[in-house]
Design goal:
alpha+beta, 21% helix, globular, binds fe (ii) ion, TauD-like_sf
């Protein structure tokens, strides 16, 4: 659609757009807010470069999308528990968010969206890949659509596909971890095909790190189908790529995307502020 108060330019073939002509540090008008929301629903991922925001301004903008919620596995900033720092130092090797996933899909009501605000970026690399889960559904054959439509996935906070689970990930970073011992209890069942509550479109709700089995299936059936669905949902044709420089802000819709942080900047520092936007529906 045409926008009057913002400039919206696609960054990928099927999802993602850069939004220009707006300073998020200034008060936003109702029409700007409505157009940003419309662009968010149409593009699934919005990127705003060159923003200069305090933490309060960052939170105020994030709240336009919904209430902020803490992330369970990392302690937030002292005065801003809803904000946590994703920091990778030059001598660290493992990165956070380095496998495909959609945020907190192990919750009964997963978050609407996630916002990252780049504070310090490497000289090159450190991009985020984001995959379009509408396309992942739409490109299945009709027989496979009929198979997955009736299925329920089981999503865990414990990263069961990773050796050592959640604990190994948190131990490999310098984050102030929280609730790691409870990761195995954080589990939810959701339909594998969910309908977006605002667009009405169907998405294949695959969260690479969290989806670990399909309810009611044998282990062999489940492993084969989960393996296929994870490969399919990570097809490069469904992705866009967000590149950061200091002051880049990105917000994505967790109800119809999954993402992966690239770890291709050895020897350099990357610091992002992450805000999680709650108020999501129970997937249906
Ligand atoms: Fe994530």
């Amino acid at each position: 659609m045409a926008y009057r108060t913002i400039e919206v330019t696609p960054i990928g073939g099927t999802l993602g757009a850069e939004v220009a002509g707006i300073d998020l540090a200034r008060p936003l008008g109702n029409e700007q807010i409505a157009e940003i929301h419309q662009a968010f629903l149409e593009n699934q991922v919005l990127v705003f470069h060159g923003q200069d925001l305090t933490i309060e301004q960052n939170k105020d903008f994030a709240r336009r999308f919904g209430p902020l919620v803490p992330y369970p596995f990392v302690k937030g900033l002292d005065d801003h528990p809803e904000v946590f720092e994703i920091r990778k130092e030059p001598d660290e090797e493992k990165n956070f968010g380095g496998a495909w996933h959609t945020d907190m899909s192990f919750e009964e009501r997963p978050p609407v969206g996630t916002m990252l605000y780049a504070r310090e970026t490497p000289s090159r690399g450190g991009d985020t890949l984001i995959a379009n889960l509408y396309r992942a559904y739409e490109t299945l054959s009709d027989p496979m659509k009929r198979v997955v439509e009736g299925l329920t996935g089981v999503y865990s906070g414990d990263l069961k596909g990773r050796r050592g689970g959640r604990k190994a990930l948190m131990d490999s970073t310098r984050f102030q971890a929280a609730n790691v011992e409870r990761a195995g209890e954080m589990e939810a069942e959701h339909p594998l095909v969910r309908t977006h509550p605002e667009t009405g479109r169907k998405a294949l709700y695959v969260s690479g790190s969290h989806l670990y089995r399909i309810a009611g299936m044998t282990d062999a059936e489940s492993a084969a189908l989960v393996g296929f669905l994870k490969d399919h949902a990570a097809t490069p044709d469904f992705t866009c790529r967000v590149s950061y420089r200091p002051g880049t802000l990105v917000v994505w819709d967790n109800r119809c995307t999954q993402h992966r942080a690239l770890n291709d900047y050895p020897g350099e520092r990357r610091v992002m502020h992450r805000l999680t936007i709650g108020g999501g529906d129970r997937p249906h």
